[in-house]
Design brief:
24% of the residues lie in helices and 44% in strands. The protein has 260 residues and is an alpha+beta fold. An 8-stranded antiparallel β-barrel has the order 1-2-3-4-5-6-7-8.
Length: 260
């Protein structure tokens, strides 16, 4: 009886050991395989959002635009008529054609340096042709000016500017069918024309054509109207004066043009 009980007990113990071994093997990772690591609870910080940088970029761009609220370079072309003054008015009638072209380098919104080329037709008066004993003539002025310019705004559309500076002027002309005798005494026209020497005209007859260079100054100003395209219309009045050996040339160009 005791042997049967021992045998049954041994059999039950053997079965129990088998069950425990199977449970252990099911929970143990297979040989050569690393158990899976538990999921990490730490989170990798997300990269800075691109949208977070956009406001900074827009702000930087806006700041640059506000700093440079003017054009570094300006160009202008214009046309108009001339009003003479001084001694020039005695021999030249007003209304001659004037053409101008220029460029300006701006240091800021208000100050710049502007260079201009000026052409001014100087038609001689009828009384002048009588003094010269000529049937007709051509006469004109070429000028180059370099001026500091001060710009200012009145409204968002209207503005203005003033300028003053030195100038170089070349006056040239030619008389047609002149009957003046060489060596004749000079009158006031020949003195202004620039071909009178020692109070008389050259014996070689080279007094019909005039060519002289003069240095001087100019000053003036204008008003501007900004168009939707960004181009500005302007109206300008300027006084120019040149002199050499006591001979003067004075013109007052009135021009209308565009600058951009």
């Amino acid at each position: 009886m005791i042997g049967k009980f021992a045998t049954a007990s041994a059999l039950m113990l053997f079965v129990l050991m088998i069950v425990l071994v199977e449970q252990g093997s099911s929970q143990t990772a297979p040989a050569g395989q690393t158990p899976a690591a538990p999921p990490s609870t730490e989170q990798t910080p997300a990269p800075p959002s691109a949208t977070a940088q956009e406001p900074a970029d827009e702000e930087s761009t806006s700041r640059r635009k506000k700093v440079r609220d003017y054009k570094t370079w300006n160009y202008n072309v214009g046309a108009g008529a001339n009003l003479d003054s001084g001694t020039t008015k005695t021999f030249v009638r007003g209304g001659g054609f004037v053409g101008t072209a220029g460029v300006a380098r701006n240091g800021n919104k208000y100050l710049g340096l502007r260079a201009d080329f000026i052409f001014a037709n100087l038609p001689l008066r009828t009384s002048t042709l009588e003094l010269a004993q000529a049937s007709g003539a051509t006469s004109y002025l070429l000028g180059v000016t370099l001026d500091p310019v001060l710009n200012f705004s009145v409204t968002s559309k209207y503005g203005g500017y003033v300028l003053i500076g030195p100038g170089f002027y070349h006056r040239s002309g030619s008389l047609n069918s002149d009957t003046t005798v060489p060596g004749s005494p000079c009158n006031t026209f020949w003195t202004w024309w620039g071909t009178c020497f020692n109070s008389s005209l050259p014996l070689n007859g080279k007094f019909v054509d005039a060519s002289q260079n003069q240095f001087g100054y100019n000053f003036g100003g204008g008003v501007t109207r900004k168009m939707p395209s960004g181009v500005e219309l302007y109206a300008e009045f300027r006084f120019t004066h040149g002199s050499h050996n006591g001979i003067t040339t004075d013109v007052r160009p009135i021009t209308i043009g565009v600058r951009w």
